[in-house]
Amino acid sequence: MINFSLISFVMATGAVAYFTYHIVQRMKKSDNATEEYFTGGRALSWPVVAGSLLLTNLSTEQLVGLNGDVFGDKALVGVAWEALAAFAMIATALIFLPKYLASGFTTTPAFLEKRFDKTTRSMVSGLFLFGYVTVLLPVVLYTGSLALKGMFDLNFPLWMIIATIGILGSSYAIFGGLKSVAVSDTLNGVGLLIGGLAIPALALVKLGDGSFFSGLSTLFNTNPEYLAVLTQTNVDEKVVTVPWPTLFTGMMFIQVFYWSTNQVIVQRAMAAKSLAEGQKGVLFASAMKLVGPVMLCLPGIIALHMTDVLDISKQDQVYGAVVRHVLPDWSIGLFAAVLMGSILSSFNSALNSASTLFSLQFYKGYINQTATDEQIVVTGKKFGMGLAIASICIAPLLAQMESIFTYLQKVNGLYSVPIIGIFILGIATKHVPAIAAKIGMIVGMAAYAFFTFVNIKGVPTFFANGDGDLHWLHGYFISFILSVGVMLVIGHLKPKTNEEIAVSDQLDPAPVDMTPWEHAKNASYAIMATTVGIYLCLTWAAS
User: Fold this and answer.
1) Is the pTM of this model over 0.90?
2) What three-state secondary structure class fits 104?
3) Could you read off the pLDDT of 72-86 as tens digits, one per residue?
4) Rounded Cα gap, residues 199 and 90, in angstroms
5) Residues ≥6 apart with Cβ < 8 Å to 295
6) What is the rounded CA–CA span in Å between residue 442 and residue 425?
């Protein structure tokens, strides 16, 4: 079984690489080497934008981590990560993307330089790079290696698997650029969608002793409280990882940060051939996020009904255990190839974005201001190599974490809190000066570190986590409010002059057609209505 699985795995992975190469060769190339490498020559159509967005986001840190959290919670509260993502992506399509494309920005922090100053842009770029090297890249490598090791029952040390994935993933990003990353994402996305939906379907068949509908009946009639999406505590009276009050505080803002300002995500939409194509791609991906819980949460709930046949000693092992239990031997290699695609996608996307930020902001901005496009691209490739090596070294250290998904989100907040406040004010008001952005950034980071890593005890149950301390998502919200509040006060006391506002309002010619998609608002309304409907249905089922 192992031999055949490995052969099918290698063949499927190789096929994606082969077709990616040939598709990229046929795509229109930009005369500008920098734009070609970092933005794909702004030639991406909406299906490629959507596919790349989804697969950049959807990887093993979610498949493994979120299913593990749902299993540990004994509740479907993790659906919130996908449902609120759909709302945030609507904000990206309608509000943020037009701002980014209007002046042809290559990075999201470039918008902040226009709105505030170069130092603000550099500080935010540095925070993004900190997040990529300490959190995102190592987590992707670790969870991906854990999943593959479990599926193939490999006897190799975890660090060896991590290194292999890291080398493969970096090759796409370093040598192919954004266009290669986006195309491979789209191809792998099709496979992941099919394979990811097949796992819960097959698990329900197993649960129902060969009948899908019997399994579905068991899911809805045996411990229906597992399906709760709006709750503070689970069936064991333990506080869940996402209590319902957090949906109205930190959860929404962390989603807006990730989907509307995060370079690794927004870079895909910024590479669209027009505003309309970018909006269509983002909104299609938003609609597909509503399917996400079927892959990211449902296997964890099904596993709660199968604990007698699954070998699970740690919650992050849940997804791999379900996959091994339900997949026929002959298909494990194919699914592993699909999973490998999602791992490589998230890893190479983050590498490409990090290289973009470093090359354009720090190398071109400070180290070599007269650098040619070719020099910038070469520097980006070298930086990507160094970042890949660092991530490979850090990833094995994550094995000691109890919940990898919670770790990911908590540490993300350390740099996302100060960033999201600056972006929102940068779009919402013109009067806040650059000094306010810098001070707000420091206040936001310090406040979040305090509320998250210092246990605030004795808080009301409404705001508490499982240990009775202040829940980190509420801490996120408080830190955000403090950061924004400081910036608004400074903006009131020392606002930008009319001359400064006029300079920041000056825009370079847009590099793409800025005509919005005519159905963008109607599509957004439909997505929001569907999201509310899903919550209502699941709440009814759990009652």
Assistant:
1) no
2) coil
3) 899 999 899 999 999
4) 29
5) 58, 63, 196, 197, 199, 200
6) 16
Judging by beta carbons within 10 Å of its beta carbon (0-12, 13-18, 19+), is residue 481 exposed, middle or buried? Answer: middle
In angstroms, the CA 356 to CA 379 distance is 10
pLDDT at position 177: 56
Cα(121)–Cα(112) distance, integer angstroms? 5
* CB within 8 Å of 173: residues ≥ 6 apart: 181, 347, 348, 349, 351, 352, 355, 384
Distance CA 352, CA 346 (A): 10
Q: Which tokens belong to 104?
A: 């042809």
Q: What is the pLDDT of residues 282-338, one digit of tens each?
A: 999 999 998 889 999 999 999 999 888 887 777 877 888 888 888 887 777 777 777
Q: Which two tokens stand for residue 519?
A: 């159905």
Q: In degrees, to the nearest 5, what angle opens at C-alpha 316 toward C-alphas 310 and 320?
A: 50
Return the amino acid letter for 201.
A
Q: What are phi and psi of 272, to 5 degrees?
A: -70, 155
CATH superfamily of 2-542: Sodium/glucose cotransporter (1.20.1730.10)
Residue 514 vs residues 100, 315, 511, 521: alpha-carbon distances, Å: 11, 46, 9, 16
